[in-house]
From TrEMBL:
The lineage of its organism: Eukaryota, Metazoa, Chordata, Craniata, Vertebrata. Pfam families: 7tm_4. One of its GO terms (molecular function) is olfactory receptor activity. Gene3D superfamilies: Rhodopsin 7-helix transmembrane proteins. It is found in: Membrane. The chain crosses the membrane at residues 25-50, 62-89, 101-122, 134-156, 197-221, 241-260, 272-294. Residues 43-292 form the G-protein coupled receptors family 1 profile domain. Putative odorant or sperm cell receptor. It is a multi-pass membrane protein. It comes from the Eukaryota. This is Olfactory receptor 52M1-like. Keywords: G-protein coupled receptor, Membrane, Olfaction, Receptor, Sensory transduction, Transducer, Transmembrane, Transmembrane helix. One of its GO terms (cellular component) is plasma membrane.
Length: 314
């Protein structure tokens, strides 16, 4: 039994509405969402399997690509199973600890993305003779661990601040399909200024620092490219970065649109905002495998080889 909006409570669980305003369409909405989630899982697992099975892909760029696939799987799996449970079984209830854990995984892994891969492209183009010696397996592992620790340090305080500073809530009903930080903070009773400022500050800090670091990397890359000997080489070299640039655009544009809509788009209907918030967690895991499978010759050839082998065995 949930408290009314006129009373405050110390909740042990919350009630996720799904997509507010479209409750009658939940069953129909589950069809495209479940299909997209299946495509995301199959695509990223395929990338992981291709890199594992093909020894020629045991290189830094593909290890970073595997990290990206794992991140995409975590992001989509953190939200889609619960949302589909709401659509199919009416499983709206979520424990407080599970809610905070979901919030942590979503925001943490959303910050662990493309910096390491930008560094890999810089070394591959600007210092190709020392690429494998600079980016050894140990260095790749340390870069991945550093990116993960950065996400934990940035996002770890968010659930702790909610747990310690905001015990009372006006309602336990979250008008969302998953536990998003601002959606939860807006329900709290008391001073939420610190939570709001920290959440907004971390969002802009990650976006600005990542943008500056990636931009600096590509400025150095294109300066090195312009110094190459032949026009043919200059035209060919940027192609090695195109997949990474596409992945950046696929990930950051939906995040920026969703974040700005949530904070400043007060006239945007709630269901539009919730759909955007779900798309930015679901579309990159779908599109990244497509982008890399299409743009990366070695992965494409390995997948075609596996498909031909299976066709011949039947």
């Amino acid at each position: 039994m949930f408290m009314s909006n006129n009373a405050c409570s110390v909740p042990t669980s919350f009630w996720l509405t799904g997509i507010p305003g479209l409750e009658s369409l939940h069953l129909w909405l589950s069809i495209p969402f479940s299909s997209l989630y299946l495509v995301a899982v199959v695509g990223n697992v395929t990338i992981l399997a291709a890199v594992k099975l093909e020894r020629s892909l045991h290189q830094p760029m593909y290890f970073f690509l595997c990290m990206l696939a794992v991140i995409d799987l975590v992001l989509s799996t953190s939200t889609m199973p619960k949302m589909l449970a709401i659509f199919w079984f009416g499983a709206h209830n979520i424990d407080l600890d599970a809610c905070l854990a979901q919030m942590f995984f979503i925001h943490c892994f959303a910050t662990v993305e493309f910096l390491a891969m930008a560094f890999d492209r810089y070394v591959a183009i600007c210092d190709p003779l020392h690429h494998t010696s600079v980016l050894t397996h140990a260095v790749v592992g340390h870069l991945g661990l550093a990116a993960l620790l950065r996400g934990v340090l940035y996002i770890g305080p968010l659930p702790l601040m909610i747990r310690l500073r905001l015990p009372l809530y006006r309602t336990q009903i979250i008008a969302h399909s998953y536990c998003e930080h601002m959606a939860l903070v807006t329900l709290a009773y008391g001073d939420t200024a610190v939570n709001n400022l920290y959440g907004m500050g971390i969002g802009f800090l990650v976006l600005i620092l990542d943008s500056l670091a990636i931009t600096a990397s590509y400025v150095m890359i294109f300066r090195a490219v312009m110094g190459l000997a032949t026009p043919e080489t200059r035209l060919k070299t940027p192609g090695t970065c195109s997949s990474h640039i596409c992945a950046i655009l696929v990930f950051y544009i939906p995040i920026a649109v969703s974040s700005l809509t949530h904070r400043f788009g007060h006239r945007v209907p709630p269901h539009i905002h919730i759909l955007l918030a779900n798309f930015y967690l679901l579309f990159p895991p779908i599109l990244n495998p497509v982008v890399y499978a299409v743009r990366t010759k070695q992965i494409r050839e390995r997948l075609l080889h596996v498909l031909k082998a299976r066709a011949q065995s039947k």
